[in-house]
Fold:
Amino acid sequence: MAFTGKVALVTGGGSGMGQRAVERLAAQGAKVAALDINEAGLAATAASSDDIHTYTVDVTDTLAVADVVAKVEADLGPIDRVMAAAGIMPTDRILDMDTALIRKTMDVNFAGVVNVVKPTLPGMVERHRGDMVIFSSLQGHQPLSNQAAYCASKFAVKAFAEILAGEHPNSGIRFACVCPPAVNTPLVDQLNAEAQSFLDLLPARTRLSPDRVLDAIERGLDKGKFWIMPGIARPAATYYRFFPGMFWKGIHKLEEKNRQAAA
Amino acid sequence: MGFKGRVALVTGAGSGMGQRACERLAAQGATIAALDVNAEGLERTAASSDSIHTFTCDVTDWDAVSNVVDKVEADLGPIDRMMAAAAIMPSGLAMDMDVADYKRVMDIDYLGVVHAVKATLPRMLDRRSGQQVVFSSLMGFLPTMHLAAYCAAKFAVRAFFEVTYHENRGRGVQFALVAPPAVQTPLLDQATSNPKTLGEAKILAPDEVLDAIEAGLDKDKFVIGPGQAKGALIAQRLIPDLIWKNMHKIEGI
Structure:
């Protein structure tokens, strides 16, 4: 099944998952507001349909995002679905990562989500209708070396989304927290070499395409599921949850292997 | 048992847990660098011992933290224990809090920890000795109504510190992530929307938490769950849905 609403708003619409989401929603006949800081990316996104309207905005700018939301509602109408997909994934050992970048990662990935939820959710609550789809990550359930800043931000998003949904029972709104494993998007290019090697632990077929993730979201929303954990995400998260010691042992073994290979 | 090192640095030292930690460590003969934005609170902390040296410092300011740590190591000596206790805990329904509130909580409760760790850990690693003691919370493991901003920050601390630990373990530094339930300190008073869930586990006294920390450090535990937090952490792993069911009942939402 698919989105039957009239208006959708997607952050991170200029590339990767967000871009694909925008394209698909527009193809289903919705009017889509695509938000991103990346103007060139937005232009590429908008090329696929006249029903895609782009808004260049920095998701970390609270007032600017609120302004854009107001504009979208004025231009396109009440928002039926929000997909908060904007994210960055700088990767490094934590002691080598600049504190400014650690802060920025949290800002974009977490505050960026709150900034779009705050102005859009009240309208949905009033209309007793809407989809609030928030992207966390498998890395919001499972910590990983070289990703302290990213994991921190995705754990934060997950906690926020879960409490937000928990505080809105019987609201008529479908909340979803999407927790994909690695997806084939430009985000993965932000991984450093060592983090890439963790990815390569898993067979290539476990790397998901954006479409597979988006399909999982639609299925999950239809079934009223909050946690959308496509592909290997659920078993991986469960493994860490019940056997964190073994999980980390495996990571350290791989790190040792990498060190020996590099020597 | 107890701190055997010479110098300890504590953030959030002007009140509550941080203050009590300073008092206890000083009583054990250590030299303490007490950090807080709250100068008045710091004065009260320092009143208990000549070995407590105060530094008015905003943990959200990386340069400030970095400079204070430089000064402490130059003036007082190499830091043997860093305890990151600075935090705020405003409460409210997720949609009732402004984004500015979320940012503030994240700044102090998460970035404040990041700064304290990043400023002190490299030197400890060079010396192959030291203890990094960081406060997350039971609320860094249990998503809790009325505490979206606080939970987000404490979940972040937990993830950040667990990765930091695994990236730096086996190099002579000890890492401890403390996850207390509600503790009887001024922090509790900040939860003005009165989340009833906070009272579900027995509220601990600061000394009970600090005792649990020393015991945990002695046993080289990474996660230290004082009091009923221990059981709650296991419950969260096994029956998260039941915990939510119960929370809906308690909070009436």
Q: What stands out?
A: Residues 99-127 of chain B form the longest helix (29 residues).
